[in-house]
Design a protein that fits this description.
alpha+beta; binds zinc ion
């Protein structure tokens, strides 16, 4: 769904969408399970910077929810995260802040972004919001034992009998050298 300043200047858009799996590509790290719900409002906000300079911003507020599968950082088993979050974002035309310093806006909680070519793609904004809402590091359980570095066995499911020592050939060459010294 594309939100353009030209359209939003005419009237604000209230959206309520249920997006099926595959509508938004969240990348390799997050897989949507089931549908993604979002609703909110997009409107233009005019910043009167001077009598001659009026900046048309896109103000986007709303909420989303969805269930995502993210691989465990240790054993790569999928872990489910049910996300439900709100967003309150302001997009300025790209380049408008380059000349001067960052300017404060009145709404304190609002995050600032930039839009290009007269508008923005709602799905792009939602993708970014989802990735921000996901935890930086996902573990299937706090004490996940991870994968055996030797055989790849998931150690949560079954213990393997691999040696704890790395089997790098350089190490075995070294240990041969050392045992040679002793004899
Ligand atoms: Zn794990
Ligand atoms: Zn193993």
């Amino acid at each position: 769904m594309r939100l353009t300043v030209v359209e939003l200047e005419r009237e604000a858009i209230d959206f309520s969408l249920e997006l099926p799996e595959g509508t938004i590509d969240f990348g390799e790290e997050a897989l949507l399970v089931g549908s993604f719900q979002t609703k909110g409002r997009a409107e233009v906000l005019h910043e009167h910077r001077s009598p001659t300079e009026i900046v048309a911003d896109i103000w986007l507020r709303g909420q989303f929810s969805g269930v995502f599968e993210v691989p465990c950082a240790r054993c790569v088993e999928p872990v489910r995260h049910a996300l439900a979050s709100e967003f309150d974002l302001l997009f300025r035309p790209l380049g408008v802040d380059e000349a001067g310093a960052e300017r404060a806006i009145s709404a304190e909680e609002t995050e600032i972004g930039y839009y290009e070519k007269g508008g923005l793609q709602l799905e792009d904004v939602l993708r970014e919001q989802v990735l921000l809402a996901l935890p930086a590091r996902t573990l299937c359980q706090p004490d996940c034992k991870g994968l055996c570095p030797v055989c790849g066995q998931n150690r949560n499911e079954q213990n393997c009998h691999c040696s704890e020592r790395p089997t790098d050939p350089r190490w075995s060459a070294l240990s041969k050298l050392e045992s040679g010294k002793d004899s």
